[in-house]
Specification:
Layout: H1 3-12, E1 16-21, E2 25-30, E3 33-38, E4 47-50, H2 53-59, E5 65-67, E6 78-81, H3 89-106, H4 109-115
Antiparallel strand pairs: 1-2, 2-3, 3-4, 4-6, 5-6
């Protein structure tokens, strides 16, 4: 997956917003909360997403995947695919969707209703 494909996928999820921040990173949010980031790897595409605890434990040591810089050091369960082989495009999309779903689930009922989620 490249940056354009990443952005296209995230844009297709319901009620997402996009901002460019933190050193030209593409940051995707739902309800004002971050669920995915592309950037942060010395100019190479790196994809960062929230992970469930089991996925964090299983994936964090695989080649091309690491605990997300800054976020994981703060105790958050975020992973970054930064190099090959990493995940297949379909696996990465599934984790991005799961990250989105986790963030939506944490939004208030009022916010979910306002967004139609």
């Amino acid at each position: 997956m490249n940056r354009e494909e990443f952005n296209t996928f995230c844009a297709a999820l319901p009620q997402t917003t996009h901002v460019v921040q933190w050193g030209n990173a593409d940051v995707w949010k739902v309800g004002g909360k971050v669920f995915a980031i592309c950037g942060w790897n010395d100019g190479k595409d790196a994809f960062t997403f929230k992970a469930r605890p089991i996925a964090f434990e299983v994936l964090s040591g695989q080649p091309g995947i690491r605990p997300a810089p800054y976020l994981a050091s703060r105790g958050m369960k975020w992973l970054q695919q930064y190099d090959e082989p990493g995940l297949s495009d379909e696996e990465l999309k599934a984790h991005l969707r799961d990250s989105y779903d986790m963030v939506v689930a944490k939004l208030t009922k009022k916010m979910r209703a306002e967004l139609g989620l």
